Input
Amino acid sequence: MFNENPEQFLEHSSVGIHSVSADGVILYANSYELEMLGYEKNEYVGHHVSGFQVDSNCLDDMLTRLNNLDVLKIYPAKVKGKNEIKYVL
Output
């Protein structure tokens, strides 16, 4: 169990966490995700995921699954970090 409130728990998690709208806009990214990818919040949050996803087929599949309310678990993807491509789950 954690002692912090849920928002602080998510923000300071040791795993990257983000939220994407139904139309593909990044609504939230925690500090670990931003640090891992090398972006400032304003460079990432509020932008469409297509600007960061390397594989368009993977992006299309993820968005289709999310729009069908499927859960994505351990889903491999290549993401454009600020300085390099990152392989993420």
